[in-house]
């Protein structure tokens, strides 16, 4: 540090880190696309107390919540290839599992962990909408599906949005653990650049700034959407 | 017009309805009285399939259904004919007053939106809420919300409207406006089945009063028969409890 920061490296590496953003976003978006419908369905099994499945859901939630994501990554990253090798051998499929792109593992791990978070978010949001409104919808001739789509979900979404935002931000930040699977995302790219001349401070600073910008933008987007949805809620205030 | 036979319903080991029969003619305003827990709400809910009866049969015009295992199609058909006004209003909080009223028409019945809006506005003017089309439920008083609830039922042009204690969640000073609206639609010839503790409504508006207790109908008759010369001991006891002290002087 006696020479101070290497500003040229700082700026160059900033763009290296920035080039990891698409991968981080891709993992985030794919995980959300898998997690949202899955978590919603599982939240319904909790609300309607579907026997067996709801217990399984509960177990799943506490299992994922009770373990660090990095451990989940290690487990998936080390065990899935073994499983696949066995499977491929059995069915004589000629694929080298060690050539599978790490992004697929990232999709698996992050959609699993996000699902667990969102189940609880959806369950509590749905339960804030009074059951009477569902009955009223039935009584005027709506099907359960129509009632959920037009009455229940729009109200639950307003309640859930801040938590969905938090979950999304946490997910973006968690993708930084992708380096453990050699995923070419923000953190890994900047660290690799730093390895050459040991400019770790600059690299970490760049990583820090990139995540800060990324998360702020996402948060701002959610705020805008929330404002838009809240039109009717304003009346409630 | 509506005939119900032998409705049974238990929650767990607790038998709430123990064989209720009921028949209602077009234009009837029937009031159900009874102590708390006698199964009045449960009966109305079974009729609209919000609760599944354990046993029972309903004929409604040409529709004939088993209340225990009705098909989806029959449930939908019955719900087209029966509207429900809830104790807690149960308005759709994310929809405006007018949207609340037309939701069932547009989505449930596929009425063209323009036509539905016409019908909805007419229903809202009947309950005196013509200036509130674009308000959200949270901006209304309880009395106004319940009037929207009534307009939502009226707009469906049902054969009968079921009311479950429509005024009991209201502040006393708001009860009157709702009762007035109910009286008006009764006078227009709407068939109504009303659970209420408002004795004045039962006496002045109903043409038949049913007294329920312990999951069965104890006694039924004209308001005069029930209020002035009740036959059953349980009816007398109940009336003594709910009517003002001096009422007994008139008997
Ligand atoms: N979903 C339910 N599960 C279990 N018990 C229920 C359920 N709904 C109603 N009950 C019970 O059934 C009994 C009758 O209830 P119901 O609401 O039909 O009475 P009610 O005559 O409408 O009384 P009130 O005048 O207080 O409204 C009550 O003892 C109630 O606790
Ligand atoms: Mg009741």
What's the short version?
Chain A has 237 residues and is mostly helical. Helix content of chain A is 78%, strand content 0%.
Please specify the SSE layout and strand pairing.
The complex is a heterodimer of chains A (237) and B (251).
Chain A: H1 7-18, H2 21-47, H3 53-65, H4 69-90, H5 102-126, H6 131-139, H7 144-174, H8 186-197, H9 200-229, H10 231-234
Helix pairs in contact in A: 1-8, 1-9, 2-3, 2-5, 3-5, 4-5, 5-7, 6-7, 7-9, 8-9
Chain B: E1 2-11, E2 14-24, E3 29-33, H1 40-47, E4 55-60, E5 63-66, H2 72-81, E6 82-85, H3 97-108, H4 113-126, H5 142-155, E7 160-164, H6 172-187, E8 192-195, H7 199-204, E9 208-213, E10 216-221, H8 223-227, H9 233-242
Parallel strand pairs in B: 3-8, 3-9, 6-7, 7-8
Antiparallel strand pairs in B: 1-2, 1-4, 4-5, 9-10
Helix pairs in contact in B: 3-4, 3-5, 4-5, 5-6
Structure description:
The complex is a heterodimer of chains A (about 240) and B (about 250). Chain A has helices at about 5-20, 20-45, 55-65, 70-90, 100-125, 130-140, 145-175, 185-195, 200-230, 230-235. Chain A has two domains: about 1-20 and about 185-235, no CATH class; about 20-185, MetI-like (MetI-like fold, Orthogonal Bundle), CATH 1.10.3720. The model of chain A has no long low-confidence stretch (mean pLDDT about 90). Chain A is an all-alpha fold. Chain B is of the alpha/beta class. Chain B has helices at about 40-45, 70-80, 95-110, 115-125, 140-155, 170-185, 200-205, 225, 235-240, and strands at about 1-10, 15-25, 30-35, 55-60, 65, 80-85, 160-165, 190-195, 210-215, 215-220. A six-stranded mixed β-sheet of chain B has the order 6-7-8-3-9-10, with helices on both faces. In chain B, strands 2-1-4-5 form a four-stranded antiparallel β-sheet, with helices on one face. The longest helix of chain B has 16 residues, at about 170-185. Chain B starts with a strand and ends in a 9-residue tail after the last helix. The mean pLDDT of chain B is about 95. The interface of A and B includes residues 138 and 139 of A. The complex binds adenosine-5'-triphosphate and magnesium ion (MG).
């Amino acid at each position: 540090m006696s020479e101070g920061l290497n500003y040229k490296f700082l700026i160059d590496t900033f763009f290296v880190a920035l080039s990891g953003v698409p991968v981080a976003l891709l993992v985030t978006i794919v995980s959300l696309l898998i997690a949202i419908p899955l978590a919603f369905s599982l939240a319904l099994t909790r609300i309607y107390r579907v026997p067996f499945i709801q217990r399984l859901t509960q177990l799943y939630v506490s299992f994922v919540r009770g373990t660090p994501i990095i451990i989940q990554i290690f487990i998936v990253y080390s065990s899935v290839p073994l499983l696949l090798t066995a499977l491929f051998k059995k069915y004589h499929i000629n694929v080298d599992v060690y050539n599978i792109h790490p992004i697929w593992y990232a999709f698996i791990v992050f959609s699993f962990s996000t699902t667990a978070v969102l189940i609880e978010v959806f369950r509590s949001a749905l339960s804030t909408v009074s059951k009477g409104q569902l009955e009223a919808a039935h009584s005027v001739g709506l099907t359960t599906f129509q009632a959920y789509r037009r009455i229940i979900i729009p109200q639950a979404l307003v309640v859930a949005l801040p938590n969905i935002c938090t979950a999304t931000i946490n997910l973006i930040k968690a993708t930084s653990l992708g380096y453990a699977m050699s995923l070419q995302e923000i953190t890994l790219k900047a660290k690799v650049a730093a390895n050459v001349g040991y400019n770790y401070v600059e690299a970490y600073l760049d990583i820090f700034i990139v995540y800060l910008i990324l998360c702020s933008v996402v948060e701002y987007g959610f705020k805008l959407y929330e404002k838009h949805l809240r039109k009717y809620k304003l009346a409630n205030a | 017009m509506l005939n119900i036979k032998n409705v049974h319903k238990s929650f767990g080991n607790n038998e709430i309805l123990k064989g209720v029969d009921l028949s209602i003619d077009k234009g009837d305003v029937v009031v159900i009285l009874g102590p708390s827990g006698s199964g009045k709400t449960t009966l109305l809910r079974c009729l609209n399939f919000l609760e599944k009866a354990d046993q029972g049969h309903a004929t409604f015009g040409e529709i004939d259904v088993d209340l225990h295992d009705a098909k989806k199609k029959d449930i939908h058909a019955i719900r087209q004919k029966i509207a429900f006004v809830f104790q807690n209003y149960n308005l759709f909080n994310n929809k405006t007053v007018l949207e609340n009223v037309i939701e069932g028409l547009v989505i449930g019945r596929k009425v063209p939106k323009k036509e539905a809006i016409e019908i909805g506005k007419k229903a809202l003017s009947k309950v005196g809420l013509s200036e509130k089309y674009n308000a959200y439920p949270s901006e209304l008083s309880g009395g106004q919300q319940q009037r929207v609830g009534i307009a939502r039922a009226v707009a469906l042009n049902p054969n009968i409207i079921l009311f479950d204690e429509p005024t009991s969640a209201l502040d006393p000073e708001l009860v009157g406006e709702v009762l007035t609206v109910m009286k008006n639609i009764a006078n227009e010839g709407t068939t109504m089945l009303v659970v209420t503790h408002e004795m004045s409504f039962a006496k002045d508006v109903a043409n038949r009063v049913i007294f329920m207790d312990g999951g069965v109908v104890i006694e039924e008759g004209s308001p005069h028969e029930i209020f002035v010369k009740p036959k059953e001991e349980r009816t007398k006891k109940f009336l003594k409890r709910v009517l003002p002290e001096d009422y007994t002087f008139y008997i």
